[in-house]
Design brief:
73% of the residues lie in helices and 0% in strands. It has 188 residues and is mainly α. Helix 5 packs antiparallel against helix 6.
Length: 188
């Protein structure tokens, strides 16, 4: 996603739009991470209530609606959390640090592939659940929340798709890192 939108110069100090690149990357990763946490959260709450024999709160929504709604809210929460985290981490940093981090994101082919898979899933999920909601089959969610839930679920499925179809095993990647090869290796 990002390499198609922004140029990747030979040297990090020449990287344009460094703030934009890093911000987009952090917010995108935050959305996916938050969606994963949000998708898992209802299971934890149910298990907690079952272990400690607490009566479950009555809810008129089926599990599918609760999961999707929780994933949508988790995606928003993760986006906000990583947005604040990025600001806290990068506050007062030199411009070259922004450029270097952005340059490394664009240089990392595996990260770019992950971003592509996740963004594709996000768009397809948002469109499909958003349209399904408008037709009355969106799991009882309003159109906006259904689209957000679809985006969250699509982003998660895109990430899973990337992991499943990745052509490199962990051992292969470790060997390349040890040998000084790979997308971040110095050019000779």
């Amino acid at each position: 996603m990002l390499p198609q939108l922004f140029p990747h110069p030979v040297y990090a100090e020449d990287q344009p739009s460094a703030h934009t690149i890093l911000t987009i990357h952090c917010l995108h990763r935050g959305f996916t991470a938050g969606a994963i946490v949000g998708l898992v959260a209802p299971f934890g709450r149910t298990a907690f209530n079952a272990i400690f024999s607490r009566p479950s709160l009555a809810t008129p929504f089926p599990w599918s609606t609760r999961l999707l709604s929780s994933a949508a809210l988790g995606g928003l929460g993760g986006t906000a959390f990583l947005g604040v985290g990025m600001i806290a981490r990068m506050w007062g940093r030199e411009e070259i640090e922004w450029k270097d981090r952005s340059w490394r994101i664009l240089a990392n082919k595996t990260q770019n592939r992950e971003d592509d898979w996740s963004a594709t899933g996000l768009v397809i999920g948002a469109a499909s659940l958003g349209l399904a909601s408008r037709r009355g089959t969106g799991f009882g969610l309003p159109a906006g929340r259904a689209a957000l839930a679809g985006a969250a679920l699509g982003s998660i499925l895109g990430t899973i798709g990337h992991v499943v179809t990745s052509s490199h095993s962990v051992e292969e990647v470790e060997q390349k890192v040890i040998a000084g090869e790979g997308p971040l290796a110095p050019k000779q």
